[in-house]
Design brief:
The chain is of the alpha/beta class. The two termini are 29 Å apart. Strand 7, helix 5 and strand 8 form a beta-alpha-beta unit. A 5-stranded mixed sheet has the order 2-1-3-11-4, sandwiched between helices. It has a 5-stranded mixed sheet with strand order 8-7-9-6-10. It is 33% helix and 17% strand. It is built from 10 helices and 12 strands. Belongs to the NlpA lipoprotein family.
């Protein structure tokens, strides 16, 4: 998925109607057998983005018919995949998938990686995190996944300290005040840019979707998390299949096609130049996913 969608996945989204651009039956049966002549249906949330047209054309050149199904509700692509009405989806990162699997007792698995999209800290009066005055307030998204990631960004920037070093489940309650130079206010993700623009906060962690609302671009971030850091592993965007279809060789071909120069170039443009592509193997992705799921269950 593009970065415009990564960071808006987790907020509770009211069930909205879904718009389908393709309605054919999936190319894999629920029993694990595959029909190599049937189209592979892929659930996404950004079907209008240019990379999907290029990707579909490249798949056709390899003899693989692809049909893209667009969803307007981020809660639905995993449900559709779990129910067997899709073959693949590509719209989420590992943390989001782990939360779905644990909440629904599902066994969806990553079969390939796409990219990590750095999460940025923005300010209108400061060009370096070190310039932010002590005691300043910083706005961060309040949804579960983005809040934790935002806190990790601020810790990496040297502005605060999290209990036990922080992780992808940290909340504002884990901020160690006496070891931090700023305070944080968690608000709806869409409100972070508004808070910065209004001057009510000194800086804000803003999802890509809302950076423009503050009159900024992704290049204006004064700090980003490191996509190569182990702390960014839960935020690797992924291709996902059901466990019983994960070994379909066509899926591996499609993952490779996503990383062709033309597709990546289109995806990079859609991301505002922020996408950092990764070829993390399915085995590594599944290991990371298992660790996240284990931690989620331990907290239940």
């Amino acid at each position: 998925m593009s970065s415009k969608h990564l960071r808006v996945l987790v907020p509770a989204i009211a069930a909205a109607g879904l718009m389908m651009t393709a309605c054919a039956a999936p190319g894999s049966s629920s029993g694990g057998d595959t029909d190599s002549d049937a189209p592979i249906t892929i659930g996404v949330v950004n079907a209008a983005d240019a990379q999907w047209t290029i990707f579909t054309e490249k798949a056709a050149e390899e003899g693989i018919e692809v049909e893209i199904t667009n969803f307007s509700d981020y809660q639905l692509p995993n449900k559709a995949l779990d129910e067997g009405t899709l073959d693949l989806n590509q719209f989420q990162h590992l943390q989001f998938l782990a939360q779905f699997n644990v909440a629904t007792d599902s066994e969806l698995v990553p079969v390939g990686a796409t990219a990590v999209f750095p999460l940025g800290l923005y300010a209108t009066e400061y060009t370096d995190p070190a310039d932010i005055p002590e005691g300043s307030d910083i706005a961060i998204p309040n949804d579960e996944t983005n809040q934790a990631r935002a806190l990790l960004v601020l810790q990496e920037a040297g502005l605060l300290t999290l209990r036990d070093g922080g992780n992808s489940f940290s909340t504002v309650n884990d901020v160690i005040a006496e070891e931090s130079t700023v305070t944080v206010t968690a608000v709806d993700a869409a409100q972070t840019a508004i808070a910065l623009q209004s001057g009510s906060v000194a800086a804000a962690i803003i999802n890509n979707d809302f950076v423009g609302d503050a009159g900024l671009t992704a290049e204006d971030a004064i700090f980003n998390d490191d996509p190569s850091s182990p702390a960014s592993e839960p935020y690797i965007n992924i291709w996902v299949a059901s466990a019983d279809q994960a070994d379909d060789e066509r899926f591996a071909t499609l993952v490779d096609l996503w990383h062709t120069e033309e597709v990546e170039a289109a995806a990079l443009e859609e991301s505002g130049g922020t996408a950092v592509f990764t070829n993390t193997s399915p085995e590594e992705l599944q290991e990371i996913l298992a660790g996240i799921e284990e931690n989620l269950r331990a907290q239940a």
